[in-house]
Amino acid sequence: MHLINIILSWCQNFENHYLNSDLKILKNNEDIKLEAEINDQNKLNFVINHVSFFLDEFPTKLNYEKNRDKNSYDFGDLKLMISKPLPSDLQYIQEKKDDSYKIIEAKKWDLSKNNIDLEFQLPDTLNTKNKILTMVVYAQTLDDNQDGIQDQDILDPEYVPITSYTFFNY
Length: 170
Fold this sequence. Notes:
By secondary structure, the protein is mainly β. Helix content is 6%, strand content 46%. The strands form two sheets. It has a five-stranded mixed sheet with strand order 5-4-3-8-9, with no helix packed on it. A four-stranded antiparallel sheet has the order 1-2-7-6, with no helix packed on it.
């Protein structure tokens, strides 16, 4: 008698599980607007932290050959992070002068109740022509204190991607 061991692995992509399917992503030239409703804010317990943009080359035979043995796909190079507007006396500071990405503030950052309403403008310095631009919205989960009560001031340091969208720019 022969024994056969079988190992199954299940992988699920949880992106878009957090937002209702009627989310709207509108792009008009360099202006982008995101409107969405969180599925169950009380159950999911998170707050939007930032939006990242990654640039990648269009698929070519050369790119395929360079990457064909990879086990996964990445979004490309991080080029831009959009964060909520700060009070006028504060500003975001890049950790390193030679960072490959830029941090900018959103024009609109409204996270009222279960709704997400964000507007931002891609900077002119971000060359997206003939590139694939992927937008990823990241959230942080809110921690519960010992009594199981949600504390708005305690954030988990890990970011969770809650949705992504790809723009093909010709």
